[in-house]
Amino acid sequence: MPNRLAGQQSPYLLQHANNPVDWQPWGEEAFAAARASQKPIFLSIGYATCHWCHVMERESFESIGVARVLNEHFISIKVDREERPDVDRVYMTFVQATTGSGGWPMSVWLTPDLKPFYGGTYFPPTSQWGRPAFVDVLAEIARAWREDRVRVEKSATEIVERLTIMARGQGPRAMPGEGALASTFRQFEQSFDTRRGGFGDAPKFPRPSELAFLLRESARTGDAAGRDMVAQTLRSMALGGMRDHIGGGFHRYSVDGNWRVPHFEKMLYDQAQLVLAYLEASQAAEDPFFAQIAEDTLQYVERDMTDGTGGFYSAEDADSIPPDHVDDPHAHKMEGAFYVWGADEVRAVLGADAPVFEGRYGILPNGNAPFDPQQEFVNKNLLHTAQSIADLSRASGLAPGEVAESLLRSRQAMFEARRTRPRPQRDDKVLTAWNGLMIAAFSRAARVLETGARHLATAIRAASFVRDTMWDHDRRRLLRRYRSGDAAIDGYAEDYAFLIFGLLELFQASGDPGWLSWARELQARQDELFWDPIAGGWFSTTGEDPTVLLRMKEDYDGAEPSPTSVSALNLLTLAHLTGETAYSHIAADAIASFGGRLDSQGRAVPLMAAALSTALTGGEQIVVIGRRGAADTVALWQAAHRQFRPFAVAVLVDPDRTAEFAAHMPWVSSMTMTEGKATAYVCRNFTCERPFTDPGAFE
Questions:
Q1: Does residue 636 lie within any of the structural domains?
Q2: What are the beta bridge partners of residue 471?
Q3: d(C-alpha 315, C-alpha 422), whole Å
Q4: Which one-letter DSSP state was computed for residue 352?
């Protein structure tokens, strides 16, 4: 019989709806049950594509014996961290503070008034790897609650008091100077892996905020070292096993230091940020290879991660049923099963093209990597780029063009063959924040790539969906999540910040002032709901929900950047677009709130360091006045985007819509076409050079 998760929309909660555990969603009904029964709460937090969440479910939450213990001694609550990052952030802070590490699944035990007193991450069914067995942990916590409850509750109260103090401040508040940027750059330089790219050793995570900072510092100082670190890192990622060479897109991270063996889940926020990084690298390094990788990733998102309504899905799982076990009713899902191949499978699919494909992607008869310690994939191969086109040409006797054509045929054939396999589960909820990042990526691609028109249409469709479905006009509130026709959960600071970022990119790509207007409205609303007038920066939550014990601020640019970092850049963009100094003042205040962190630990907040770099450099405005789609307009617009100019805003103004633009950007009102020709202006601090009509001279 399904438990009380059956009526939820979250794919993660629905995965657990048939567990024998009497799960309840986060909410007053569960809290009231804890108070009435005076049982402690067992809080389990994870997300739909989390591999170890699946493992713990299979080992423990599907066990009748474990369920009996949980149901007898605890009120069990499940939370999807992607729907409720506010709840996750509070208890993750507790787990990290008390254990020194964190992750998902996260397991936390709370008093009936929601105060944490014990926590961890994954617990195995039996004692192993230095971790106690889950049932032993449950038994000991039940005993402590029964026999020593006063001490447990006192400890929980003291813990919450300490966490409250931790959440209050971020250290000194002062606007840093260039020294903070130089110090941050050195931190990255010292940890850079000069042989393999990336920073540090295994595991290696894509952290695009780092790359954004390094590219901006390279542009600001003229030192190519930052650009070269980015180029090497992105090239290694694209050639290694972290990229899906058959279907496009990137896996979550590399478990090894060589970028060979991925953790196989695919997250929307990674695709979005990596597309932006590859597009910027294509401009900064003047290398079309990076643009090709961006294009390939966008095609994956468009094909496999886009809802029929225009929004973007959240993720794809790492686990699936192995294709050779599809008829086994007892088969369980395995991580990476969708992506690995036996040499015999490759040859059966490709025939005469197989040798070139095998050479290119390192296919070996007995498997190509020691990535399978449990021997679940004997003799399987994980694709990575093992040989160049030139090497394959010499080895095969084929011309380089013939090798490329063979690989193109093979990729399509392998893609079609893979479509017959059981797919990993897709988390089909639409999150406003992650959609904002993806709108930004498609919008930037619309300006940089030759296929820009298609990408612009995709961005407009997604932004229109969010505006029509996820924006509560009456309450002037964004909603966080949409799935199966249901939009719900008030948005967090990241939803506003990331969506504003996407809209500002979309405005620059589309030339539609309506997107700028909405971005400004959202920024005003974000400031009303989340701004901290005392310490600066934006809280993650409004503070309106009393069940969320702490009102916290994110001060780390990790897999997802901090809302304050993104917002500082948004405000600088708004200032450069509108000329309104109020935006730059708030941006400076936000950067100053991270001042101590930037001075001493800039590597932790690289996107805020990028905002500081932007603030110190000053803004540049590029405006092209011309008929959209006209040949002379297109030529100037393309010339404006061949170079990497990270501190510039670029706007395409149709002369028939100048008045609409001037309502937000009064400084463009006097700009006109020259002798009926499309005309480009380059301005710095709203003082413009002579206009250009010739693309070569302009560039």
A1: yes
A2: 478
A3: 16
A4: G
Closest by CA position to 3, among listed 57, 53, 47: 57
Q: Are residues 613 and 628 in the same domain?
A: no
Three-class SS state of 503: helix
Same domain (yes/no): 641, 538: no
| 321 belongs to a structural domain | no
- What CATH number corresponds to the domain at position 672? 3.40.30
Question: pLDDT tens digit string along 70-79?
Answer: 999 999 999 9
Residues 159 and 198 in one domain: no
Which has the closest alpha carbon to 648: 620, 667, 624? 620
Whether pLDDT at 374 is above 60: no
Residues 6+ apart with CB under 8 A from 565: 209, 557, 594, 605, 607, 608, 610, 611
Q: How confident is the model at residue 371 (pLDDT cuts 50, 70, 90)?
A: low
Residues 127 and 217 in one domain: no
Residues 89 and 217 in one domain: no
C-alpha of 677 from chain center: 41
Among 617, 633, 658, give the residue marking a domain's end: 617
Whether residues 25 and 133 fall in one domain: yes
Is residue 85 domain-shared with residue 137, that is, in the same domain?
A: yes
Structure tokens at 601: 């630990």
Does residue 326 sit within a domain?
A: no
CA dist 467 → 48, 430, 435, 436, 484 (Å): 26, 13, 11, 11, 17
Give the pLDDT confidence of 178-199 residue by residue, as tens digits: 999 999 999 999 999 999 999 9
Residues 367-384, mean pLDDT to the nearest whole number:
75
Helices marked H in 51-148: 51-56, 64-73, 85-99, 134-147
Q: Contact at 8 Å (CB) between 457 and 491?
A: no
Q: Average pLDDT, whole number, for the chain?
A: 95
CA–CA separation, 664 vs 516, rounded Å?
A: 8
Q: Would the CA dihedral through 51, 54, 56, 58 be positive or negative? A: negative
585 falls within a domain? yes
Least confident of 118-132, 209-223, 515-529: 118-132
The range of the structural domain enclosing residue 659 comes to 620-698
| Residue 183 sits in the same domain as residue 286 | yes
Q: Specify the number of domains making up the chain.
A: 4
The pLDDT tens digits for 130-168 are: 788 999 999 999 999 999 999 999 999 999 999 998 887
